Amino acid sequence: MISIHPGDVISHSTMGVVEGVSLQKGMNFKIKGGQSIILMSQRKGAPYVDKVENDGQILVYEGHDVPKNLATYPKLIDQPLKSPKGTLTENGKFFNAAQRYKDGEAYPELVKVYEKIKDGIWVYNGVFELVDAWEEIVGNRKVFKFKLHITDLTIDQKEQRQQEANDLDHNRMIPTAIKLEVWKRDNGKCVTCGSSDNLHFDHILPFSKGGTSLSAENIQLLCARHNLQKSAKIQ
User: Fold this and answer.
1) Residue 78: is its pLDDT beyond 90?
2) Host H or E run for residue 97
3) pLDDT tens column, 109-135
4) When comparing pLDDT for 219 and 173, which is higher?
5) CATH number of this structure's domain 9-166
6) From CA 78, how far away is CA 20, in angstroms rounded?
7) Which residues contact 207 (CB under 8 A, 6 or more apart)?
8) Confidence (pTM)
């Protein structure tokens, strides 16, 4: 079984192996009754507007359009809460989950987030809590917005949701622009050994010791082996 951690660089096929299903949709609520997953992108030309706020703690994720087989111009139509058959769309499922949390009826849904930074290159951004959802007017149509807050909890730690998150390295999501700058600077290779496999975006000075996610000077690419070696030396 493959284990991944926030900041790990993976392929789409590896993502499928990790999750046990080929992810073709951007929004996936409780796949096979289990975990929820979203795929985000802040690349130029990305179909949806995803934003990172509050120094990487908050993700504002845009809902998805009506399928292309149901509309000639999906971007001219309100994003749907329900399908033509009356069942909830992925927008609707995530929206209802956020509403249940806001109404005090449930803990926030835990959502795994993967980010596409380049063709064929994805980064696991970690686990987020879904804490809010709303509709807003963009242009002449309604779109859904979902607010997620990064957490140190794992999908298997639902009973610990009331605990405060600690200042771990992945407690701030590295902005897309920083990831791309570091990837280009480090030539997509581990800065220690030159490997292009099992890469990880690493904080040179850990966040818990005052390091930042907002400067490429504090981020580097390391392979899994050298990332583990470095972590073992940090006291």
Assistant:
1) yes
2) helix 90-102
3) 999 999 999 998 999 999 999 999 999
4) 219
5) 2.30.280.10
6) 32
7) 167, 168, 169, 170, 171, 172, 213
8) 0.79
Provide the pLDDT for residue 104: 84
Nearest 5°: the CA angle 110, 226, 204 is 70
In this structure, the number of other CB atoms found within 10 A of the CB of residue 47 comes to: 12
Average pLDDT, rounded, for the chain: 87
The helix or strand, by DSSP H or E, that contains position 125, with its residue range, turns out to be strand 121-138
Phi and psi, residue 216, nearest 5°: -60, -25
What is the three-class DSSP state of 175? coil
Q: For residue 157, which amino acid is it?
A: Q
Number of Cα atoms under 13 Å in the Cβ half of residue 97: 23
Are 59 and 173 in contact by the 8 Å Cβ rule? The answer is yes
What does the domain layout of the chain look like in residue ranges?
9-166, 174-235
Compute CA distances 54 → 38, 74, 204, whole Å. 20, 31, 21
Q: Are 20 and 95 in contact (CB under 8 A)?
A: no
Query: What digits encode the pLDDT tens for the residues 131-172?
Result: 999 999 998 999 999 999 998 776 665 545 444 334 444 556
- Between CA 187 and CA 190 the distance in angstroms is 9
**What pairs with residue 38 in β-bridges?**
27, 113
| Phi, psi of 176, rounded to the nearest 5 degrees | -55, -45
